[in-house]
Specification:
By secondary structure, the chain is α/β, with parallel strands linked by helices. The chain has a domain of 228 residues: 3-Layer(aba) Sandwich (Rossmann fold), CATH 3.40.50. The chain is 43% helix and 15% strand. A seven-stranded parallel β-sheet has the order 3-2-1-4-5-6-10, sandwiched between helices. Helix 4 links the parallel strand 5 and strand 6.
């Protein structure tokens, strides 16, 4: 397909989610034409008023994915189920079946590139942070297993169908409107239920969401990125304690706290809680899971030399800047609502 045949610069899946929505805005700022694929009935307040084309469907419906990809130059797949507690079928539908359909849509559409958002969880939480050459490892935890199997589908398609794919493996993506790393942790801090594992000294592998969006866009235009996977995190060695203390600057003194427990004990507690919840068929998330313990206690400082050398990645927005932009959002009306906090708990915006 020639460049003249592409009517739309980018298709973004997961555009109503945290990372996908930030990527969408970054593409628009770069002057790109954008189409998004949204589930029927999905609330789309975050898309209101944007100069984009909206198509309705879902990743489990191959025909709707193929239709959305028609005439698109680049597909950015930010959709998926990122959770440590969900039904097995939901993990399969979002992270495996959905990936298969995206690959078929890539082939049928003739798009120049698929930029797929994976996760560093595919490494299976090694004791020492690794490079991409370590390889992906299925250790049986539901999220890890589904993302590994999703990537296996990608690399099989790259090898057998010569499809143009670039994969990013972030660890911990934060920023304004992050429910997982900002709102949820903030809620736990205010409830004084937040736990740091073994002092919170493990490197968190943090990346500010706009830095991630920028490097994904760069990769889409770079021939050298075709057929490659990239670890991605911001430079520096910031720990979970650094991150939690940074969020805490947003709160009034005395309104929040965290406790500290050894990581091995936390893992044992998480395993027991998962077992009990599974036996009893409890659908709500346990307070502690093995997935969460791995993320908060294992070294997430993955080697990023490949993305630096190939694509010139740097932390365009520094940790200090990213944290302050995050705190500004936390102090906003939307941020306070996400935290379930009133003005008495959130420090005044200065």
């Amino acid at each position: 397909m020639s460049s003249n045949d592409f009517k739309i610069d980018a298709l973004v899946t997961g555009a109503t989610g945290f990372i996908g929505n930030h990527l969408l805005h970054s593409l628009l700022k770069a002057g790109k034409s954008v189409r998004v694929l949204v589930r029927p009935g999905k609330k789309c307040e975050s898309l209101a008023g944007l100069p984009i084309e909206i198509m309705y469907g879902n990743l489990e419906d191959k025909l709707s994915v193929i239709a959305a990809a028609k005439g698109v130059k680049t597909i950015f797949n930010c959709a998926g189920l990122s959770s440590d507690w969900a039904a097995t079928q939901k993990f399969y539908d979002a992270n495996i079946a959905g990936v298969k359909n995206i690959l078929d849509a890539l082939e049928v559409s003739g798009a120049n590139r698929l930029v797929h958002l994976s996760t560093s969880d595919v490494y299976g939480y090694p004791k020492t942070a690794c490079s991409e050459d370590y390889g992906i490892h299925n250790i049986g935890l539901p999220y890890n297993r589904s993302k590994v199997e999703g990537e296996e589908e990608i690399w099989k398609a790259v090898k057998t169908r010569n499809l143009p794919v670039t994969v990013f493996r972030p660890a911990s993506v934060y920023g304004p409107r992050s429910m997982e790393w900002v709102a949820e942790i903030g809620k736990l801090m205010l409830k004084k239920d937040m736990v740091l594992l073994s002092g919170g000294h493990a490197r968190a592998g943090l990346i500010y969401v706009e830095n991630l969006a920028r490097i994904m866009i760069i990769a889409a235009e770079s021939p050298i990125a075709t057929g490659k996977s990239y670890n991605i995190r911001d430079t520096g060695n910031h720990s979970w304690k650094d991150f939690v203390d940074g969020l805490g600057q947003c709160f009034v003194d005395g309104s929040w706290s965290y406790s500290n427990i050894p990581a091995p004990l936390a893992y044992a507690v998480g395993y027991c809680m998962e077992t009990v919840y599974g036996v009893l068929g409890i659908k709500s998330r346990p307070l502690l899971t093995r997935h969460a313990v791995n993320l908060l206690s294992k070294d997430q400082g993955f080697d990023i030399s490949r993305v630096q050398q190939d694509l010139g990645f740097q932390s365009w927005i520094s940790f200090e800047q990213g944290m302050e932009l995050t705190r500004v959002w936390m102090r906003s009306e939307e941020g306070r609502a996400s935290l379930g906090a009133d003005e008495s708990a959130v420090a005044a915006l200065v």
